[in-house]
Write a structure and sequence with these properties.
Helix content: 25-40%
Number of strands: 5
Oligomer: single chain
Strand content: 35-45%
Shape: elongated
Distance between the termini: 40 Å
Strand order of the largest sheet: 1-2-3
Radius of gyration: 12 Å
Length: 50
Amino acid sequence: MLEPVGVCVDCGKTVYCDGGFLGGVILEDHTLRCSDCHHERKETISESTT
């Protein structure tokens, strides 16, 4: 069952909880980032450090 829990701070898409699993991450400032933006950001950071 999909339940909306908030909005992604990067893209504005609704972040859902699906069967107890969050479709994103909670940031230190207690905001949400969707899984797509989180993975995209991780790739960008890893490319800039190499």
